[in-house]
Amino acid sequence: MAVIELLLPAPDRRCDRWRHHHQVINRILWKVRTGALWRELPKATHDPVTVCTIYVYLTYSATMAYVVMAEDNPQHQRVITEILHRLHHETVMVPDGRAALAAIAVRRPDLVIADVDMPRLDGVQLCRAIRRDPELAGLPVLLVTAYLPPSDPELETAGATMLLRKPFGVQQLAEAVQRCLDTCRADPQGAGAGASADAPAASGEDSAGLLSSPDLVSALLHSIDIGIAVCDRQGRLVLLNNKLRTFFGEDSAGVALADWPHHFVLRHHDGTPLSAEALPLVRALAGETVTGADLLAYDQHQRPHWLLVNAEPIHDSAGEPIGAVAAVHDVSTEHQTQRYQRCKNAVLEALTTAADATGAATAALHAMGTWLQWPYVRLWLADPVSDRLLPAATFTAPGATPLPIPASITRGHSLAGSCWQRGEPIWVPDVHAPDSPILPEVARAAPYQAAGAIPVRSGAQVIGVLTYFSHDRQEPEPALTVLLTGITGHLGAHLERRRAEELAHQLAASIDEYVALVGHELRTPLTSITACTDLICQEPDDTTLGDLRNLLDVVVRNSAELLTLVDQLLDLVALESGHARLTSAPVDLVAIVTDAVSATRPAGDARHITLRTDLPDQLTVPGDDTRLRQVLDHLLDNAIKYSPDGATVSVTLHSRDNAAVLAITNPGAPTDEHDHLLRRLYRGSNARHQGIPGSGLGLTLSRAIIDRHHGTLTVKPNPPTGTSVTMRLPHIAHADPTPHQRQTT
């Protein structure tokens, strides 16, 4: 009644006009419920009291149906749920009749929709169970079937309110649902009021007293779950119901309508600002009927909500505008659901079309940042050598402020490290709060409100962490958690799949390499041995040993090459299969590097090659000193052999992020061949063309040894020309600080 009173000038409860409107409102509400009003609608549309009452009632009733849907087909579940949702009905989906009865016991619905053909308890059995229960006997039941014809005796005896045949369209289902609900409202005792058969009927006096209560419309306006706003002809807000007051604040009614877009930062769904002229209530005041106007607003906790607004002008009996009314529907759930689905599709497309793991991660972060409106997203991957998180990819939205990136993060430290340690999502509603896990230097540089972290898994193992920052306050949200967990699961699986594909590629390459071994690396020395042996056999019996010395030297030299090659291959197979035993003890890597450099220096001096070192006094790693010396000998031997005369070879060793990092740089293999240098039997074109001896197994053996030490060996270009080989091993930290570096030439 309050909204009507505010639309009437100087209401006086004692005057006949007020009593007349009061009686009209109650008659209208009753006629709307019974459907009788539609026969009188043409002559009622000029009455502002009637129009406003009908508008509020229809808006209210359109959102009130609570429907239990029993359907075992997942596709039909999604379709029917979407249709009912668009009809503004609250829906609970269950897979069979037993689950439907359990849902009904928890909360009585306005309508039950059941498929006839279901496991455990089918739709017909469910309908009969409802009809047998005196408390539920009047509940409307809509049966859906593609199995039984309408004339089937089972359907006739089930007692269903209506039967809907499959296949059906959106309009057919909507009409059937509305007819069932209308039947319930027109005849509550016989179609869904749920009253017991022995319960006494309500007296006419009680009904008349309820409908004539002046608090009826006020209670209606302030109890519905949608926002209602009313303004007068001057654009002054005369009513905001409880829903809107709770959303915008108790003093929101005092804000001038023209100031709302600026005061409450109102925008369209796409984020563009909303002008005062585009406000639905202002448009309705100008005579426009507004349907489904989109609005993005923030509640008092600065959480975004996506709204749809319907608005209409209100006229007096002479047809003159006297105000406008608007109904505000919060469709944030639907909007977020659509946005999440589009985000997931974009991420899956990015993972499918990316050329490599790095490109896939970058494209996935771009899709997430774009669709979820996150200005800053970062992917961290666990480094098995240092047992730290290292940055792998970053997305920064156009115009967004980039944040400082730590070189690495340890377990339990900062947002990403805490997520890595706990293995579960972390939500940070306020990055500047005292208890925020954000690093202080990052928080100081962040103009963002909220942040979060989600573990990236490969099976049960956490292989990385995805972190994000947002301008909007982000509370823990189940739907978003499910989405992000799914996306990071896809990302982790993609990275592992790429790794598996790389191993499969290496296996295929290994087969080719073994064929090449038989075809070249073994046949070449065997050819020399066979030819020399034949020549020796053709010599006369009285030939002296001195005359055969040259041929015998060729046989001995090629036999030694074959033996070395076979030994290296057997060693490589033993290392890769895990059969080769390696000791593990604290080893001073500086001492090993120093000895290896000293042993290699004479070969470098012979070609005027300078060996320059930059080493600490001590750096301890766990490992096998003999095998590590073998790796250093291989790496330094290659650096000397493949460098031109007079070149400089640099050897640096230092500790970084719990890892010992050794780098050897030299003017080496051509830059377009670096990706192939770690393959078995591969030799750079400079080695082949210049006749540099070797088997092509040195770097491959070195990588196998470093892998067994839980380290990595990589080969990268050293601009402008040359090669840089980097070895990383887990480092044993000491309590005393590492002494200063020693540089020698």
What does this structure look like?
The protein has about 750 residues and is α+β, with helices and mostly antiparallel strands. The protein has five domains: about 65-185, Response regulator (Rossmann fold, 3-Layer(aba) Sandwich), CATH 3.40.50; about 225-330, Beta-Lactamase (2-Layer Sandwich), CATH 3.30.450.20; about 350-490, 2-Layer Sandwich (Beta-Lactamase); about 520-575, no CATH class; about 585-745, Heat Shock Protein 90 (2-Layer Sandwich), CATH 3.30.565.10. The protein is built from 25 helices and 23 strands. It has a six-stranded mixed β-sheet. The chain has a five-stranded parallel β-sheet with strand order 2-1-3-4-5, sandwiched between helices. The longest helix has about 45 residues, at about 480-520. It is elongated, with a radius of gyration of 40 Å. Mean pLDDT is about 80; it is low at about 1-20, about 30-50, about 55-65, about 190-205, about 675-695 and about 735-740.
In short:
The chain has 745 residues and is an alpha+beta fold.
Fold blueprint:
Layout: H1 2-7, H2 16-34, H3 41-44, H4 48-61, E1 66-70, H5 74-86, E2 90-94, H6 97-106, E3 111-115, H7 123-132, E4 141-145, H8 153-158, E5 162-165, H9 170-186, H10 204-211, H11 216-223, E6 227-232, E7 237-240, H12 242-248, H13 260-263, H14 280-285, E8 290-298, E9 304-315, E10 321-330, H15 332-353, H16 357-371, E11 376-383, E12 388-396, H17 414-422, E13 426-428, H18 440-445, E14 450-458, E15 461-470, H19 478-521, H20 523-538, H21 549-577, E16 585-588, H22 589-606, E17 610-616, E18 620-623, H23 625-641, E19 648-656, E20 659-666, H24 685-690, H25 698-708, E21 712-717, E22 723-730, E23 741-744
Parallel strand pairs: 1-2, 1-3, 3-4, 4-5, 17-19
Antiparallel strand pairs: 6-7, 6-10, 8-9, 9-10, 11-12, 11-15, 13-14, 14-15, 16-18, 17-23, 19-20, 20-22, 21-22
